[in-house]
Design goal:
alpha+beta; Beta-Lactamase; Arc Repressor Mutant, subunit A; six-stranded antiparallel sheet; 9 helices; 6 strands; about 35% helix; about 20% strand
Length: about 260
């Protein structure tokens, strides 16, 4: 790991410090409880390895690194911190990362307190592994410790989606939960216009599960509908996405930030 923080890390640290001016200590068991409580908000892709991290916004340090990071990046938790992660982002993606984090901070600073729990951050970046190659990680994040004045901790899930998205520029979305509007593939940092949603709410529920690798029967059981109904929705989703195969649909869903 670098012995001194990079300018790149210090810039990000300035962003994060604008949303908190204090810290609240929590135990290791409490951190695990928070992961268990909030992990339902993430789309865990069964086809890819993933790990969790918890960022302390005040300290700009990782308070938790999941041991599954070894399966994704090759490092053990003790080798990994936020500055190290940022130093190992692909050079072409570093500007994207800073831009995305700045947008996230500005969005949540302006968000009413009662809506904080109703948004999930999502973007993708390439990160160097211990084996000296790059993998593309889907970064999903939610706020887990906050009050009316401070954001204390963020829980993030990093999923290896290299096999799904090998090329293309990183994309950034803010996903609304519980009926809140979503902002997909945001391009303009100054405008957060509600994205046109080509899928119905039910279709999006099914698309999410398709990307997770679930069968029509599994989806039907989870949503309490018939497999026949699921298959009808799957056909409509393929048509709306202009995809010919389920694999192409999954690839498009990741590239276009539909889930």
């Amino acid at each position: 790991m670098p012995s001194t923080p990079s300018d790149y890390y210090l810039i990000a640290k300035k962003f994060w410090k604008t949303v908190t001016d204090s810290d609240i200590a929590v135990s290791a068991s409490m951190l695990q409880s928070q992961i268990d409580a909030y992990s339902r908000l993430f789309s865990v892709f069964q086809a890819g390895n993933y790990y969790y991290i918890i960022l302390n916004m005040y300290k700009s340090e990782l308070e938790y690194v999941d041991q599954n990071i070894t399966h994704v990046l090759g490092y053990v938790p003790d080798e990994f911190n936020i500055a190290f992660l940022m130093d190992n982002i692909h050079p072409d993606d570093k500007a994207y990362f800073l831009n995305f984090e700045h947008r996230v901070v500005e969005f949540f600073k302006a968000l009413p307190f009662e809506k904080i729990s109703k948004y999930k951050v999502q973007y993708d970046i390439r990160v160097k592994t211990k084996g000296n190659n790059y993998v593309r990680l889907l970064h999903q994040a939610v706020q887990i410790d906050y009050d009316e004045k401070n954001y204390y901790r963020t829980l993030s899930l990093h999923t290896d989606i290299t096999h799904i998205k090998q090329d293309g520029v990183p994309c950034f979305s803010l996903i609304g939960l519980d009926g809140e509007p979503s902002y997909y593939n945001i391009q303009d940092a100054n405008e957060f216009n509600k994205s046109y949603d080509r899928f119905t709410k039910r279709e999006r529920e099914i698309l999410k599960r398709i990307v997770e690798g679930k069968s029509s029967k599994d989806i039907a059981d989870e949503l309490y509908i018939s497999p026949h109904t699921v298959n009808i929705h799957r056909k409509n989703i393929l048509k709306k996405a202009n995809a010919k195969t389920p694999l192409e649909l999954v690839k498009l869903a990741i590239e276009e930030c539909w889930v």
